[in-house]
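User: Structure please.
Assistant: Input sequence and predicted structure:
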Amino acid sequence: MKDQSTLIHLEYESDKNYDTVIAAFEAATGTITGDEFRQAVAASGGNLASFEARIRAFEGSSAFMRFLDVDHSAWMKILGIPGRCRLYILGNPLIAATMARHDLGAGLNVPVRVLIYEKPNSGRTWLAYDLPSSLMARLGNNEIDKAAIKLDEKLAALAKIATEAKP
């Protein structure tokens, strides 16, 4: 099967420097490693209330948690590419469940990816992501669309906290 959809990409341009945006973003998001996630799932013993409590313990104030951070700057510097850039994989399985329960295909786009980058000598920082509702639209499910719009709103709130900017 092959289909086509319209992607909406958002970028928040901030007057704040890269380190400040990174710090604000990370302060608003929790962190969970793969091992911690697997342990939380196992320790819940299949009990929903236990699983929810264990997952909520990893949430940041934004309700998101970072699953993976990739500092592109480290390898870019070696290759002579100027600038700083960090990719985050973040989400929350309790939020993802609001979509996955209607179509497992939603799992392709949750957790979400956020890129924070600084162009050399610009003094400006950008926070970029693809709008989850635009990614989910291809599934053609109204319940997923409604849940994805709520995810859009949570992600926008996080972007505004980190950047103090509008898309």
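The longest helix spans residues 142-163.
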